[in-house]
Amino acid sequence: MLLSEGLNIGDLLPLIPPTRPNSGTQPSKSPLVEVFRKPVVIPALKEKATEELSNRWNEFVASYDPLERPELLKNTPTFFEFLCISLITLVSLVKDCRKGFRVIKNDAYSKIKYTFFAALRETEKRQVNVKTFLLSILKSLDPRNVIVLIFRYFYFFCIYLPIRIPIIIYAEIKAFFTCLTLGYCPYPYTFVGIMYTYVPLIYNSTKEIFYILLILVSAPKTILQDILLQKESLQTITLCGRKSVAWSDPVKIETIKTISKQTAVSETEVMLSAISMCLAKYFTQSNQNIPCDLPVTMRNVCSNYIFATGPNIKPEDHVSGILCLNLPIPDPEKDVSLLENLLEIKNKFNSALEKQGLSHLLTMLQTKFGILTMFLPSTILSVYLKYLSRKYAVVVTEVTSRYPNVFQKTLWGQEVTSVIYWRPPQANTSISLCLNEYADYVKLGVMCDAQLIPHHPFLVRGFPEFIQDLGKAAIVP
Length: 477
Fold this sequence. Notes:
Blueprint: H1 9-12, H2 41-64, H3 79-100, H4 108-126, H5 130-140, H6 143-182, H7 191-228, E1 243-247, E2 251-252, H8 253-263, H9 267-285, E3 293-302, H10 304-307, E4 323-328, H11 338-355, H12 357-369, H13 371-375, H14 378-391, E5 394-400, E6 431-438, E7 441-449, H15 463-473
Parallel strand pairs: 3-5, 5-6
Antiparallel strand pairs: 1-7, 2-7, 3-4, 6-7
Helix pairs in contact: 2-7, 3-4, 3-5, 6-7, 8-9, 8-15, 9-11, 9-15
């Protein structure tokens, strides 16, 4: 409703927009943000090649464009010069049409008419016509020009090349030696310099292309086996529609970061480990069978989604795609240590990140642009959502702070000491857990169906205790 009215959540809150502190603290980056690795080398190769081609084209235009060199129009061009002028005319025509098509009617007749008159203008300016074409052939076949051309080739092969080749060889050897000794090539126009620049870019670009192709090829299998055919390990109940909420005590972000560094895992995986133990405690207290693992869906939400204001802020730009995960649930009757459970979560989490790049990207594009609803009927998507929400009855949302260690203030100057955001469960989802990062702490909140009362506080209340136990197991000072 807010998005349809052009409003954000922050527009309804009487808060002063947050500002980044001068302490230099940077927000931690969640692994849920970029599951599908964005190509880095391919854009770099494109930029480098575009720059090189642009420079070559500018040199070509400066040499053969009659508009840059009016003296070319005073004499009849040779056949080669006529071909160069024709190529420049064609490129100029394409550029003119690309600009002109934006301001004319979007129909075939208008485009053909515009292209015709643009072609007349460009050919007239550069005198590209049948008469010039025939005269250029005659000039190229003129015996005087043929004799001059023979002498030029004789000079090039018999005088210029014998002098130039040793200089080129010396420059290539010097460039190669510099690459070995200095680790970079200061001679970019040598063959060695070109190879030194482009071979790594082409090689790494090829690796990125194969990564994308691998994701595209393996995505259907992953979606079918790991998502659609996922077994239902949690018996869902008939939802009553009423919601209940609960939240944990705050946990210092610095404590989670320290555990993350000590155990060589991400902060998200540390908090997932505590969530899995909270779920195990809930199953125990409610006398339910504890599953080996529980299918959950995860997504990251930047705090700008909640607090940012203004017409240029789009909340959908601050929400990541969805990741499906089989979260291991430790059984108290089995002798499974906290670190062993954390290691199992790490392995399954990394496996999901590797396999679900495309599905994560598609769900993110759906959130931002509605790409799936453009091509698929809403009925199919609704059935698909209800089907998935039955298999993945638990949703985990990670709210990361855009401005760490910053306490926001209200419009009347009062400091906001605590913030909790709940993401309502949808369709057949019965439990929605939300990791709220605000200022210098994290709170775990839950919004669930009222059928889970009175045991629902066990889903979150033990979160600080389990983080402390994990810190002790990791020997965090």
